[in-house]
Design a protein that fits this description.
This protein has 635 residues and is an alpha+beta fold. The chain contains 14 helices and 27 strands. Its main location: membrane.
Length: 635
């Protein structure tokens, strides 16, 4: 037998085209039986078929391969399940004929309690504890439910049939097209899916209530939840309908499926999962109680629903080839969820709250132990490690930076063109580059393939701004990273906004045309609206002008937040004296914006703790200084 063990990826001499999957879960015994017939294209000479399977019992006598244009049936001479590599190796006595054939496999498995693969969750109904059966296949756990080519690039269509207790609700990616009751069981058949990756396949079996609505073009949308909680799904339902319509326009592609179900699961490891047409959620991420839930819960439901529905296009329709591009899948959905939420609920000013995503990404990526957002994945076991704040938050932030630099309209047009082709995610830069004329690939490679980010130092001298970049580390140490930095700045007014790419270590920019005024009102703010993923360090003259602008309320809350956060980070990294930070904090005495005030309070607490350890004799003066800052807010 050829050695397929230890290989990070499946061989490509056989490619799946269609799965016909039948499953029979036993919710009492917590196990399931199943059979799958897979239309496979043999594209290179081989006597092996290698696919993924894990924690399944394969019946060797049920395995066969039948070529499309032949009556001959090939039975494998050896069936080996390699558990450490989660692969199923089928060894045939002779080479399989090229072209299409059907691979049939019978199997059994366990409804596990680990919230991955095909697993069991528990709920109460009329005081009685019951099991439901749920799937969670991302990143690589469809193989625990049925033998398959469990990699994103091996897309296929899926025809699913479930045999379940007749009193239960059984959902899958597609609408039900047939239901046949046979005593205590019923057989539920679903419409065949469009092509999709295995990690997006889903089925759920249990007892549920639902609320329902339709989009303007007739897409049926439902929110399922435990019996008695249906009213808590109303808010998510409203958000979902409006979000589907918004994304249809934004991506210039209709929602690809005939229905969308969203379901709250009591035991769920992630926040939510974007299964095509059947999105699963933690209850706290989908349900909202008008009487008892906090406003923060309402915003969380809106942003999580918008995030998962973005994936119905970006991730499900257009899919990463391999998990290396996970960050783009998740970072994009995170960014566009704020775009959608801001459109639906402009009164929330959600982009100001996006600063929490940005600053968390900056904080983590300033550590020496950070990693690039684009990580080489050599084995499925490594994938879970990159579902982190660098992938989601830094990823979302650099997408926002690119969109801001290219311009909202240019970015949207490029994205719509990209969506219309059978693309993988690495083609996005090429589509945006073609539409904008900007060096998008070269630019983004500096942000995705190396860890960290720059601090951009700026000085005002002889009617010129002198820019210099260096790698920022929160420890204060020096790094040798260099980036193509999309610089935006404005002088004295948001109407006077300029942008350029800082492509070298240092560069000058002539600003005398609109910054000739030498008094303090001629403030200059870099990284307008904090759309760039970098810190800014101002010389003393520019810092004084910004303090004046803050005191006189010339700057947006987002920019006030950014100046404060950058100064605190630079102070902690010993690139700025504490006196400079304290002087800046004094300019926020009349601050009333919640997000800015929240950051100011947090910084005050941290500075106070440090000062108490370093100079305890000054604490009375420092405490009085902080009291003076917050007195106005208290009034």
């Amino acid at each position: 037998m050829e050695n397929f063990k230890g290989q990070p990826r499946l061989p490509k001499f056989a490619v799946p085209k269609r799965y016909d999957l039948q499953l029979k879960p036993d919710l009492s015994a917590c196990k399931f039986a199943g059979s799958v017939s897979i239309d496979v294209d043999i594209i290179a000479e081989t006597r092996f078929i290698v696919l993924n399977a894990a924690e399944l019992s394969i019946n060797p006598g049920s395995v066969s391969f039948s070529p499309r244009n032949s009556s001959k049936v090939f039975d494998p001479k050896k069936v080996e399940l390699v558990e450490e590599d989660e692969i199923l190796v089928l060894d045939f006595a002779e080479a399989l004929p090229l072209g299409l054939g059907v691979l049939a496999i019978g199997f059994e498995g366990i409804l596990n309690d680990r919230m991955k693969g095909f697993y069991r969750s528990t709920y109460e109904h009329n005081g009685e504890k019951k099991n439901m059966a749920v799937t969670q296949f991302e990143p690589a756990d469809a193989r625990r439910s049925f033998p398959c080519w469990d990699e994103p690039s091996f897309k296929a269509t899926f025809k699913i049939t479930l045999d379940v207790p007749s009193e239960l609700v059984a959902l899958s990616n597609m609408p039900v097209i047939g239901e046949k009751v046979n005593g205590p069981l019923k057989t539920v058949s679903y419409q065949e899916s469009p092509i999709m990756s295995t990690y997006l396949v889903a089925y759920v079996v249990g007892l549920f209530d639902y609320v329902e609505d339709h989009t303007s073009d007739g897409i049926k949308v439902r929110v399922y939840c435990q019996v008695g909680k249906a009213n808590q799904g109303e808010f998510a339902l409203k958000v979902a309908v409006r979000t589907l319509e918004l994304y249809k326009d934004y991506f210039a592609v209709p929602y690809p499926l005939p229905k969308l179900d969203m379901i709250a699961i009591p035991d769920f490891a992630a926040g939510a999962m974007e299964n095509y047409g059947l999105v699963t959620y933690r209850e706290t991420a989908l349900l909202y109680d008008e009487q008892h839930s906090a406003a923060a819960n309402k915003q969380r439901v809106a942003t999580v629903v918008a995030h998962e529905l973005a994936h119905q296009w970006f991730g499900n329709l257009v899919t990463m080839e391999w998990w290396t591009h996970l960050w783009l899948n998740e970072g994009f959905a995170t960014w566009v969820s704020y775009l959608a939420t801001d459109s639906i609920f402009p009164e929330w000013r959600i982009w100001t709250q996006f600063l929490d995503e940005l600053t968390d990404g900056l904080r983590l990526d300033g550590l020496a132990e950070s990693h690039p957002i684009e990580v080489e994945i050599n084995h499925a076991a490594e994938i879970d490690e990159i579902f982190d704040a660098i992938s989601y938050r830094k990823g979302a932030s650099v997408i926002r930076m690119l969109q801001s630099y290219l311009g909202a309209e240019c970015f949207q047009v490029g994205l719509a063109c990209y969506m219309h082709y059978d693309s993988c995610m690495k083609d996005l830069w090429a589509a945006l580059e073609e539409g904008s004329g900007e060096p998008v690939t070269k630019l983004m490679n500096t942000w995705t393939k190396q860890k960290g980010y720059p601090v951009v130092s700026v000085k005002f001298k002889d009617q010129k701004l002198e820019f210099e970049q260096s790698q920022f580390f929160s420890s204060g140490s020096l790094g040798d990273g260099q980036w193509i930095v999309p610089i935006t700045f404005c002088c004295g007014s948001y109407d006077k906004k300029k942008s350029f790419l800082l492509q070298t270590k240092s560069e000058n920019y002539d600003v005398k045309e609109f910054a000739s005024d030498t008094n303090k009102s001629a403030w200059i703010k870099l990284n307008v609206d904090q759309t760039g993923f970098y810190r800014v360090k101002y010389d003393e003259e520019l810092a004084a002008r910004l303090r004046y602008a803050i005191e006189n309320k010339y700057l947006t809350p987002t920019d006030r937040f950014g100046i404060l956060d950058d100064s605190f980070a630079l102070c902690m990294a010993r690139q700025l004296p504490l006196t400079s930070l304290l002087t800046l904090m004094g300019a926020y005495r009349e601050e009333l914006d919640y997000t800015v005030l929240s950051n100011l309070i947090s910084i005050t607490y941290k500075v106070g703790r440090i000062a108490a350890d370093a100079r305890p004799e000054l604490m009375d003066n420092i405490n009085q200084f902080f009291i003076n800052i917050f007195q106005y807010s208290a009034e």
